[in-house]
Amino acid sequence: MGTENEIINSISPCFQRFWLLDRNITFLNHGSFGACPGHVLEVQAKLRSQLENEPLRFFGREWEPLLDASRSGLGTFLGADEEDLVFVPNATTGVNAVLRSLRFAADDELLTTNHEYNACRNALDFVASRSGAKVVVANIPFPLRSHTQIIETILGKVTAKTRLVLLDHITSQTGLIFPIQQLCRELQQRNINVLVDAAHAPGMIPVNLREIDPTYYTGNCHKWLCAPKGAAFLYVKREKQPEIRPLTISHGANSKLTHKSRFQLEFDWMGTDDPTAYMCVSEAIEFMGSLVSDGWDGLMQRNHELVVQGREIICSALDILPPCSEEMIGSMATIPLPKVFDKYTHMSLHDRLFDEFGIEVQIVPWEIEPKLLIRISAQIYNTLEQYEYLGKVLRELAFILQTA
Amino acid sequence: MGTENEIINSISPCFQRFWLLDRNITFLNHGSFGACPGHVLEVQAKLRSQLENEPLRFFGREWEPLLDASRSGLGTFLGADEEDLVFVPNATTGVNAVLRSLRFAADDELLTTNHEYNACRNALDFVASRSGAKVVVANIPFPLRSHTQIIETILGKVTAKTRLVLLDHITSQTGLIFPIQQLCRELQQRNINVLVDAAHAPGMIPVNLREIDPTYYTGNCHKWLCAPKGAAFLYVKREKQPEIRPLTISHGANSKLTHKSRFQLEFDWMGTDDPTAYMCVSEAIEFMGSLVSDGWDGLMQRNHELVVQGREIICSALDILPPCSEEMIGSMATIPLPKVFDKYTHMSLHDRLFDEFGIEVQIVPWEIEPKLLIRISAQIYNTLEQYEYLGKVLRELAFILQTA
């Protein structure tokens, strides 16, 4: 296993060398936790040394300019005013901060979809159960024909009681890009606030918050921006900021400072923590944008094309059709596995691929038949040969299952 | 300034060499953010490399044993069952998690003291304002004669409506050790729950949670245990755990796992974050306990004796009396500054000491006369000469102020 992986994974050393990823693993799951380039980790290590050199000087004098500079780079990247952005450790925390700030009444309806990420669905259920509000689920089919299906299904569940809609920008299990700009417009025209869980979007597809114009939008920086773990952001529309409070109420609540909004004063300081991941976000954006000659547009296009090719390879190996059009995915592609794989659980199939074949890929349990999906990712360090290897292994496993 | 500091700070190189602290600074404020030894930071860096080597393997297989091992070491140190402990980034977040989990009614009284840390007081005010509950403040004098004053003042404010008492184990501004075991017993005998903010206690004084037996107890590991930034814990009494939920509701809320309590399943995973600071807590405990021959008892005793001597030096330099007995402080000592210093603000005095004399020490604004307090810390890397230098500088400043 080690040798075959080493051969496959040595084909694209020009980009792999920027990461610390194990060469003995065919790593096709950038989507779950991202992967941080060595250069960005080095910048973070320097910041940590700077902190430990004089913690009071760091938090008292150096911390805010470093945080603001990184936020500024992020704002430019996202097409957002930096005044409207705060850092949070992950998108799930961003979703929780918004949900737990809002007050719902017993009659309110909180709308989401069956593609929503489990952690955030739990947060929605939590605030609903506390207030007596009702969670309404729009069931979007998968496989899926068109964006129109997504929009119609969601709008079809809107009622006069709908107070908030929680939507993924890109769904976690199924890798679908939701037409979020159109959804935000349609819903806000109906006076409904939209909380967008964009855990996977920034760095996978172009994000312009001025164009999307959501009510609330939270995304991870440690996934497709390749920042260190624990870096994410929350955007809140200016006029909604006074009612959104951080989960940890701290000094910002009664700070006498006036150079920033209460929103930023509160979110920027939630007790002593390691802030260096946040401070590396702009560095990660710059580094990743420098890898190919046409910058971020080129990087995202390249990753998209690679995952589309990877999907074709796997579909062809398993003799199946892709579940949605190319335009509906970014650099993650989810494929329903043939029913014969249902003899595995998602964990047992993952573990077999990993332990026996050295392949790291996400296997997703799904609610209806077929019960297993496979989700591949493509980041610049990946190569076509890796998907070919996965396709070959899946074909072998399917053959064994069919003939067993 | 550089030279004088270098001479003063080179006297105790045998312990200073374990830290990254700037030798040009007389660093007398371990209390605010702690300081992490280079060895512990190296262990953390290795864990981070391990994470980035294969993020899925790390979070899927390696994360839980590493987290549990560190929690186990912490449990032993705190005299607590590891089942009753979860990690949080800081004590303020621990306080918020408890407060925001509890439900208060409009008539309830939430009792605290005037020595309570501002951030946690804000959290208390927040939950009070949301529920209509009332915050009641017990005013404990400073200077202070005895522990009896603390107990009597707090118990004197208890009424039939008192639902919860939020107390510091060691106060932040005034460095006082509260008789927390006796307070917990007295209050719980009256059926009142006690939330202890022990931000400064673990590693400064012996903490045995079985003996203290609080309802809720949260403490920092990055202060006096010298763990990396962003490491703290929350203890919740077994029977209270089902009602305490993390601030970020995530996968744990509906996890099908049964090898841990819901309390731990929920708190252990609050979205993707850098978990390496938590994983270094047991390493930090072991490392710090190995520095002197008599382990943690010796270390804490040594730090206590050093700060008591430091306090004497400063009081003598300013010709004032210490505000409380030696037994009431650990390794932080707060001294009210003579009224002549009131011409400074806490920030302007801090900045003058830092910028002109290279001294890092906490200056605390206080509510009544005298309006400025100075808080010194003693960690093993500190030396008597550093307090002598501070005393000399303060005496000079007082002289200038008096003759101006």
Assembly status: homodimer
CATH homology superfamily name of the largest domain in chain A? Type I PLP-dependent aspartate aminotransferase-like (Major domain)
Helix proportion of chain A: 40-55%
Read across the widest sheet of chain A, the strand sequence of neighbours is 2-8-7-6-5-3-4
Q: How big is the Rg of chain A?
A: 22 Å
Predict the CATH topology of the largest domain in chain A.
Answer: Aspartate Aminotransferase, domain 2
| Beta-strand content estimate of chain A | 5-15%
* Helix segment tally of chain A: 16
Outline of chain A: globular
- SS class of chain A: alpha/beta
What is the H/E order of chain A? HHEHHHEHEHEHEHEHEEHHHHEHEEEH
Largest sheet of chain A: 7 strands, mixed
CATH architecture annotation name of the largest domain in chain A: 3-Layer(aba) Sandwich
The domain tally of chain A reads: 2
Note the gap between the termini of chain A. 24 Å
Q: Which stretches of chain A of 5+ consecutive residues score pLDDT under 50?
A: none
* Average pLDDT of chain A: 96
Q: What is the CATH first-level class name of the largest domain in chain A? A: Alpha Beta
State the largest interface. A-B, 58 and 58 residues
Count of strand segments of chain A = 12
Keywords (chains A, B): Aminotransferase, Pyridoxal phosphate, Transferase
GO molecular function (chains A, B): transaminase activity
Protein name (chains A, B): Aminotransferase
Organism (chains A, B): Brunnivagina elsteri CCALA 953
